[in-house]
């Protein structure tokens, strides 16, 4: 029990430090800083900040040194690389989303298990039927979600796009590609391929303003892959899409992909794959619980995706476990 409480407390401490801007301040300072200086710069109480910084030292996220009776704090390489928002490898946006959106939803886990449906209405006062109206309930929430997706592909993107040799697909369409994080990883590995992200108009507009990074390798196109037309492409990517929805809707989308791609074309699914024996991986099992509180869907083992792809008309289904949070399944028409 003590270890569990320590783990939960450590998460909350990291969440709080990210929200307050502690790691960015320490990175920018270029020298150790006292708790009083951090508190003054961030507009917090000195006592509260000192306690927070001490715990961050205790969990080895920060360093501390003492000079003439005063403690001075500095960041570790881990904090500078992954927790400071300004780092190109930053997971800051992912942490903020977990803190402000996922944790409130998980507080209703008992109700979700009892009812078997998402808890957007109870948590945010929004319809449980239209899940992306809840996820994109404001411009601020949309930016947080897109930041989460960007952070996800900082960790897993390269492993996903290199799980198979995709160099033979000259045109690639990332359906629901959000901020374009995964598409950029693919464009780096396969520069000869034309890579396009298709997403809802408001998502595309925000992505261009905040996440395009001046990178001409990835193009954005407005559209609705459920209700609108899907442009022709050699390869369709559905990354973290199938797990959001019920089976009939997923099958409808995969059949639509199959009808649009040429012979030899295909679809790449990116999902967190459960083991067939239900003994893990624990991350995929946790993701599946999160799908319960937030969406209509769930995580599945490879056999589920294989039969779904076969029913949609795809053949030659290959599965690759990347060893990271997300795995890849490639199927060809």
Structure description:
Helices cover about 50% and strands about 15% of the residues. It is globular. With about 325 residues, the chain is an alpha/beta fold. The chain has 2 domains: about 1-85, Arc Repressor Mutant, subunit A; about 90-330, Vaccinia Virus protein VP39 (Rossmann fold, 3-Layer(aba) Sandwich), CATH 3.40.50.150. The mean pLDDT is about 95. The protein has 15 helices and 10 strands. β4 (about 170-175), α11 and β5 (about 195-200) form a beta-alpha-beta unit.
Topology of helices and strands:
Layout: H1 2-20, H2 22-29, E1 33-34, H3 35-42, H4 46-58, E2 62-67, E3 70-75, H5 77-83, H6 92-106, H7 109-115, H8 120-124, H9 131-135, H10 139-161, E4 171-175, H11 181-189, E5 194-199, H12 201-210, E6 218-222, E7 235-239, H13 247-260, E8 266-271, H14 282-294, H15 302-312, E9 315-320, E10 327-332
Helix pairs in contact: 1-4, 1-6, 3-4, 6-10, 10-11, 13-15
Pfam families: Dimerisation, Methyltransf_2
EC number: 2.1.1.4
Enzyme class: transferase
